[in-house]
Amino acid sequence: MTNKPNNRGKVKILNLYCGIGGNRKRWTKKNLGFDVEVTGVEWDKDIAKIYSDFFPKDTLIIGDAHQYLLDHFKEFDFIWSSPPCPSHSRMRMLWKGSGKEISNKVSGSSYKFPDMKLYEEIIFLKHFFDGKYCVENVISYYEPLIPPIKSDNHYFWTNFHFTKWGNTSRQLRNQDIENPEKNMGFDLSKYELPYRSKRNMINNLVSPELGLHILKEAFTKTTLF
Question: pTM of this prediction?
């Protein structure tokens, strides 16, 4: 079947681990052809404040996105989840065998098990959620346990077909090293944050164009199962 906006005239969206809202940026009626009602969930209060500034009409929950999904999934038509990626990242293999793993500040300060909440959410959504969903993460250093769609330097697990997107995210981030916050339309200059914090926020974004593309495809393409 193909999902359509519900009888309320709006698509209710749950945006988990929302960060500052890269995927969410272009979810407007003008771009989509229908209204959206978005609930974002973010653990970090400082990041949540920035999201709220950019998207003041969204409902914002500061708390555990993983638990919020379990408690509230039935309330939504579409769920986007971007669980934390460092424990899955290929960067963890960067200095494998060199003796420098403990000092790898990019991928974490020590060896870590992969955070399996990623797969918990994929399995849960597949079997219990009646709407459309998209779970996003980095390309992992291991073969994915559940086959994803690889698009724009990300992995995606969905229950609908979507056309793959070109590799634009990394190019956008690298356009302006001095002002990386402007690369995807997020000006963070008014926030008193360390450069590395701003850089990490931008690096964690899904490009707004890709976020728009996937949401549009969710409501025009056939459900897989």
Answer: 0.86
How do residues 81-112 score in pLDDT, each as one tens digit?
999 888 888 777 775 655 555 444 444 456 77
Architecture of domain 10-218: 3-Layer(aba) Sandwich (3.40)
Lookup result for tokens 């290929």: 90
Rounded Cα gap, residues 157 and 134, in angstroms: 6
The residues pairing with 80 across neighbouring beta strands, listed in sequence order, are 15, 134
Q: Which helix (H) or strand (E) holds 136?
A: strand 132-138
Given a contact cutoff of 8 angstroms between Cβ atoms, the answer to whether 59 and 38 are in contact is yes
Q: 178-207, pLDDT tens digit by residue?
A: 565 566 788 888 888 888 788 888 888 888
Structural domain boundaries of the chain?
10-218
50: closest CA among 200, 159, 222? 200
Contact in structure between 139 and 154 (CB atoms under 8 Å): yes
